[in-house]
Amino acid sequence: MPDSPTLPTGDNAAYRAPTPTRTPPEGAHALVVGATGITGSALIDELVEAGWRTTGLSRRSLDIPGAGHVAADLTSLDSLQSALDGLQPTHVFITAWSRQETEAENVRVNGGMVRDLLAVLGPQGSLRHVTLVTGFKHYLGPFEAYGIGELPDTPFLEDAERRPVENFYYAQEDELTAAAAAHGFSWSVHRASTVFGHVVGNAMNMASTLGAYAAIVKATDRPFLFPGSQVAWNGVVDITDAELLADHQLWAATTPQAADTEFNIVDGDLVRWRRLWPQLAEYFGVRAEGPGETPVPLEEQMVGAEAVWEKLVAEHDLAEPDLSRVASWWHTDSDLGRETEVFGDMTRSRVAGFTGWVNTTGSLLDMLGRYRADRILP
Predict the structure, then answer these.
(1) With the C-alpha atoms ordered 141, 147, 149, 155, is the resulting torsion angle positive or negative?
(2) How far from chain centre, in Å, is Cα 230?
């Protein structure tokens, strides 16, 4: 594994502020909705380490020592009623969403998931705080109108007016605040930028996607071509580390001055892909190449890449043979193809007392090293 001369890997703690232990309040029981995702899995790790009674909700099984599990279909009220009967969590962390064909369907399905979940849990009388993870599509617009039209100025501020388009994030927030008013719990919304985390099988994981892309172009003797736009290459952008996002949610759930508030959550630094891309190329031992006048998306570059991945799995004894569980070309294309700078302001969190930060480049390289150690990447 090559080491960067300026950004050594191996000790993730060197790239983040010390994380306080978020001691559970008396009688606390945390329910993480979307427990196997990039955000939910990091949150469960932190909850268990801090000593919380923790239950994960997901369709797939959960194998994290110290955490319980309930299986449920978030799109089915009957399934939720059956799975959650008598659970009585005190703190709920909603980190799940379900991608649909149209934004109208996204609104119906994802807004309905929050509404039905809280319609089941609210009457149980145990809820103290509910967090909801959304993202910067709150400011940029949904996939159907992504980055189109007049956008809020950067850095994005939490009190920016909603854009005049359908957006399932708006629907989810509205369902959350309505349920809080009806059942008497506090809430917080956590708007993340692109999330980097250590998980397999997530549709939003750029870190493992770029690692798989680098491995494939190396195996086929091709350049590590930046697939996105000139604007994304030259502009500044911020990232959200999944562990930092987990701590931000726990902070809000246990801090009275954070109640009933929307927050941006980003690492706290800014990066430019034109600076980061050559560092990633050096790390992987590939030839970096910047973008052309027209983006060449990963979905286009990686047609037929499954056969190359199959050979890499055999050569390196990799643990995940299914490339689609390691790489999510479409989602990374949407992030790197933006025609606008994207970064958010963290002042609201700082004023309320949150002090976490992460060095994006260092934590990304450390994360890639963990993927290699786990034999997810060659």
Answers:
(1) positive
(2) 24
Whole-number pLDDT of residue 2: 36
Helix (H) or strand (E) holding 187: strand 186-192
Structure tokens at 273: 């892909």
CA distance 250 to 253: 5
Instruction: Flag whether the pTM goes above 0.90.
Output: yes
Residues 6 or more apart whose Cβ sits within 8 Å of residue 78: none
- Please state, in angstroms and rounded to a whole number, the distance separating the CA atoms of residues 112 and 40: 19
Annotation says 15 is catalytic: no
Cβ–Cβ under 8 Å, residues 343 and 237:
yes
Catalytic residue list contains 218: no
In angstroms, the CA 188 to CA 185 distance is 10
Block residue for tokens 């190359």: 308
Residue numbers of the chain with a pLDDT score lower than 50: 1-12
Considering 15, 139, 146, 169, which one is annotated as catalytic?
169
Centre a 10 Å sphere on the Cβ of residue 300 and count the other Cβ atoms it contains.
11
Among residues 3, 1, 91, 115, the alpha carbon closest in space to that of 43 is found at 91
| 74's tokens | 């978030």
Q: Three-state secondary structure along 47-77?
A: HHHHCCEEEEEECCCCCCCCEEEEECCCCCH
- Measured between alpha carbons, how far is residue 226 from residues 175, 201, 218 in Å? 39, 23, 14
Tell me what pLDDT residue 238 has.
Answer: 96
CB 205, CB 38: distance < 8 Å: yes
Contact yes or no for 352/257 (Cβ under 8 A): yes
Query: Which residue of the set 15, 137, 283, 371 is catalytic?
Result: 137
Name the amino acid, one letter, at 175. Answer: E
Please provide residue 263's backbone torsions phi and psi, each rounded to the nearest 5 degrees.
Answer: -130, 140
